[in-house]
């Protein structure tokens, strides 16, 4: 019954918040009048209210009203009763920490598995994977666990970035980091470039958008998959 | 009695491992014949043996023999008896996890405070700060804590990178990440560019190298400090 959209980013360079994906969101959230927004990742540390306002402005273009989970007395009930859910980007550690703190991991998993349409972007996509161990974010808070929702049988690396061969900076490339990940973990990692997303319907996981994605499997050479590829075989 | 060198990186683009700082290391480790190396951060996932070999090759140029801590039966004793210690770069989470696992945090802190000369580069520098919450690394393992040695009264951000204004990538800049850090933490952060290091002697902390460093204090506009600046007032 899953009906999920896992996007690399909320925003493409030069366009407005969620603009590039709004047509697809109108389909995902067809018939929905009110969306529950989880603003916990707080990009640049903005407040839950300020973040929800930005999201509301975007969704008003497809006639959907947005309510922040922080405005509910009981966030577990808010998730149980939601007609649709969106978790926005920001810091994955802050997001994960708040989800655990509010005891929302189990209920979120249950309602999404039972068919509540879900959108994640960036940090909100990271938590759809098995763990948050392939986030790009700074670990500014210490969450009780790195385990995530596991809505797909692999990890997500959003904002996937190809190595810049002209760089003189000696920090690791994204590919090096994911290679390091596979010294300690065996699950696949899907590197989603900005503008790409995964469409998850029941057991089908399909790459969408115009770009290829980079797949990292344990003990295999990384490879590219074109848009339209079915990824549910990854395990 | 502290005698510490906290370097942003081990290697500058286009030169060999530790080459740029070797003259200063000859002073830091003056009279030392054998160095204890902590290879736990495992850059690119290389083995402890392979990593120690690289470090040994560099230190042989200043006539210092290098022994990896992994070759000792009792790593706590190895640290207690070490004449000098170097912790190399790689993944800060892997390094921190292994230090906790082997119960090395307390003993490391004790010997360094008592005067055992210490060199850290990259991940090995991150652990000199109050916490590892300003590392750039991917959280590929879950350490029991993000608390670090606290040899300086602030956090380190090694490989500090200025925002690339021409970039069309929508991931956060380093400055944005550190700003987010300060929504949840109040300690200062010193962004050390590649080629910079901190020289810590007793209570003096001086910025060295040719470049300025970027200092981020809670609720203040970030600012640059020139080489030679005394940083022990940061708190």
TrEMBL record, chains A, B:
CDD domains: GAT1_Peptidase_E. It comes from the Bacteria. Its EC number is 3.4.13.21. Keywords: Dipeptidase, Hydrolase, Protease, Serine protease. GO terms for molecular function: dipeptidase activity. Pfam families: Peptidase_S51. The keyword Nucleus does not apply. Belongs to the peptidase S51 family. This is Dipeptidase PepE. It comes from Flavivirga aquimarina. The gene is pepE.
